[in-house]
Amino acid sequence: MFVGKYNSYILEKKIAPLMKINDKRKIYKILDYRARILKKMVENEIFDFFEVWEILKNFYINGPSSLPFSV
Question: Fewer beta carbons within 10 angstroms: which end of the chain, N or C?
Fold first, then answer.
């Protein structure tokens, strides 16, 4: 759990503008979604560096439909 939710200068003032996110609170939803992806990878015992890299690369290129599990 991210303890700085709705109270992070770095996320709201630095990272959100780089990602072209106008609604600053949306960055927290994105962060939560990414955390759920990582938790799902742990649940599925996906620990191999290259497998993790391939899953994340495909996710960023093709979106959630490319994940080998549901989030």
Answer: N
